[in-house]
Description:
Helices cover about 55% and strands about 5% of the residues. With about 375 residues, it is mainly α. The chain has two domains: about 5-140, no CATH class; about 155-300, Intergrase catalytic core (hpI Integrase, Chain A), CATH 1.10.443.10. Helix 1 packs parallel to helix 3 (about 35-55) and helix 12 (about 295-310) packs across helix 14 (about 325-345).
Amino acid sequence: xxxxxxxxxxxxxxxxxxxxxxxxxxxxxxxxxxxxxxxxxxxxxxxxxxxxxxxxxxxxxxxxxxxxxxxxxxxxxxxxxxxxxxxxxxxxxxxxxxxxxxxxxxxxxxxxxxxxxxxxxxxxxxxxxxxxxxxxxxxxxxxxxxxxxxxxxxxxxxxxxxxxxxxxxxxxxxxxxxxxxxxxxxxxxxxxxxxxxxxxxxxxxxxxxxxxxxxxxxxxxxxxxxxxxxxxxxxxxxxxxxxxxxxxxxxxxxxxxxxxxxxxxxxxxxxxxxxxxxxxxxxxxxxxxxxxxxxxxxxxxxxxxxxxxxxxxxxxxxxxxxxxxxxxxxxxxxxxxxxxxxxxxxxxxxxxxxxxxxxxxxxx
Length: 364
């Protein structure tokens, strides 16, 4: 979805809700991405629909819900909403006016996200003195069981790079022709991704003017809007230079300004577009684990490799653009599990001399 269309989409959502919701989204999430704002607007709408159906008698439209209605809510209402989020139905209409009822289920993560949107709204209303109390402080979030996501192993990384750099060995016919057409661009995309560890959203939003190749740097707009200068490994610089040369001399693109990485439709890549490319390359070399075929796997691999190389975790956090080092600790926990595995595999629960005595008994 184009950026302008996304802002229209957000406005359509907030126009369906009370004015204080739109004000909350704009003020509270100022500086966040448009996708984040849309996501929280959708979550708040789920809460308002719950109030209309389960709490507020006589309210037929969520737009009619007032700040006073929010101020009159009890902690028990929020506790019931958290329970409601596990599975609920929502009615809507198709473009042709046909009513549709859908059943939605949320994981603990999904419940926490929606509760976070509601908590943010209460904080905003309390700080702006529109309600007397922020009762969300009395409601616990759902317990999350952290699952360690898989990174690419060294061999899988080599296999992935081999198919990206030398796909002629893997493809034939139409797939080969398609690979050759996008080869230089894809090498630049995934070398940049794997060599810098930036987020997929940061990768696709890169513009040509963000590059300073003579000084081996690139300006990345981080999550939240802050900008950071990143130094490029020489392999990344070479891949981008080759891409520039190909785009200018073969495709006839003007590489002075504009979008850096373009899809075949001459538009800025989407995260889904990058994921589709990565999955194709991964599946070609037999990498099928869902954790490893998503773009974030390359960022995860980048971080774990730095930690394995002995880079300080604070430096890794800075390179990844993490404002909270606790987020980086998730990568550290994964790296640490690999280190524990290597340590345990190198240990023997039985002293070696016992093994030796067994061997001597056999000889006798």
